[in-house]
Specification:
362 residues; 16 helices; two-stranded antiparallel ribbon; single chain
Length: 362
């Protein structure tokens, strides 16, 4: 047993919640951002601003035409798997082999591909690391093991994982449509909390394929956390904190939350209010890429995702036009209400002594 433990340590294989649930999952979200999300944004820019380079076909593969954005989106599987391998400190031969693994897992996982990529890339990466540089023909053994295990698992379990993820996501979206107030609260609060915790709310939303009203509630919850913390900590962090939290991440407050969990009350209560407002009052829907649902105001990706969904709905005939009420809902839910409500709630917490000056200093 001691020899096996020493072997795992030498290979930097650490089975822990942080390694897989924080590092790998967070890296997967970055891979998604650099492929699927950027591809969607490029396609939207090309369509809206009539940019020929972004609108025209730049490659045709197996009879399928691809734009620049289309090519980026098509590489989401390899991008996620490689990002996961990087987070797990995979050596070069393992890292490059994960490109094939990610493509296979994402393709066979269907709409729930991101979840399949996550599990399969983690397993393939760790096995690849285990055999890396253990033989004199490492250049053959390591890719064979990594790709063999990865593609084999993709064929065996990717469809099941993908289907399971989509069923969970479909259930959440169905429940949100059925009970928009209750689910608006639950989804907004849960995804908002996930965004501030050192895990990836974007990857969770992508894995579950969270769109529609549930996606809108997720955007509301994430925005409440980011804009809420940014504005209510302005006196301590000034404009630098406003930008880094408001369009960066509220995760920066995690250390302060551990010191005084009560500073989290205002953003959580705000998300519990903006969530049902999004689902019941403004009918805010995320019909863009699911990963955008868990991004909030980070680089305005959540808002861009909602806008992209509007454009897709218009193109598909589901929506006739983007109305002033649509814009009003998006702006109020994403920015105005969190910026007003969160500091007001926090002011009450300050008066009763639960929150003090310096508690949110970055």
């Amino acid at each position: 047993m001691n020899k096996f433990t020493a072997f795992l340590k030498r290979k930097d294989i650490t089975v822990s919640l942080k390694r897989y649930g924080v590092d790998a999952l967070g890296a997967m979200a970055q891979g998604l951002f650099c492929s699927l999300l950027i591809g969607t944004i490029l396609n939207t820019l090309g369509t809206q601003f009539k940019i020929p380079f972004l609108m025209n076909t730049v490659a045709t593969v197996a009879g399928v035409d691809y734009t620049v954005g289309g090519l980026a989106s098509a590489m989401s599987g390899p991008a996620m798997a490689t990002a996961i391998g990087y987070a797990l400190s995979a050596p070069p031969l393992v890292l490059f082999s994960l490109i094939t693994v990610g493509f296979a897992a994402n393709a066979l996982g269907g709409a729930g591909g991101p979840l399949a990529v996550f599990f399969i890339a983690v397993i393939a990466s760790e096995f690849g690391k285990a055999v890396s540089k253990e033989t004199k023909i490492d250049i053959l053994v390591t890719p064979l093991v990594t790709i063999g295990i990865g593609v084999g698992l993709s064929a065996l379990i990717a469809p099941v994982l993908g289907s399971a993820a989509m069923r969970v996501g479909d259930f959440i979206m169905w429940a949100t449509n059925l009970k928009p107030f209750l689910m608006g609260v639950l989804v907004s609060v849960a995804v908002g909390i996930a965004l501030t915790l050192p895990i990836s709310s974007a990857a969770i939303c992508a894995a579950l394929g969270l769109t529609g009203l549930a996606g809108g509630a997720a955007v509301a919850g994430c925005s409440a956390q980011m804009i809420g913390f940014a504005v209510m900590s302005f006196r301590e962090n000034k404009f630098g904190g406003l930008i880094s939290q408001g369009i960066g991440t509220s995760m920066l407050q995690m250390g302060n939350i551990i010191k005084n969990p009560k500073i989290w009350i205002a953003p959580i209560l705000t998300s519990a209010i903006t969530g049902p407002m999004a689902t019941c009052l403004f009918k805010l829907q995320m019909n863009g890429t699911p990963v955008s649902s868990g991004m909030g105001t980070c680089g305005f990706v959540g808002q861009i995702g909602v806008y992209t969904g509007w454009m897709q709905d218009i193109e598909n005939g589901v929506k006739t036009a983007v109305t002033a009420f649509d814009w009003l809902g998006l702006i109020l839910i994403s920015f105005v209400i969190p910026a007003v409500l969160c500091p007001v709630i926090n002011m009450v917490l300050r008066k009763i002594g639960w929150v003090k000056d310096g508690d949110m200093k970055l």
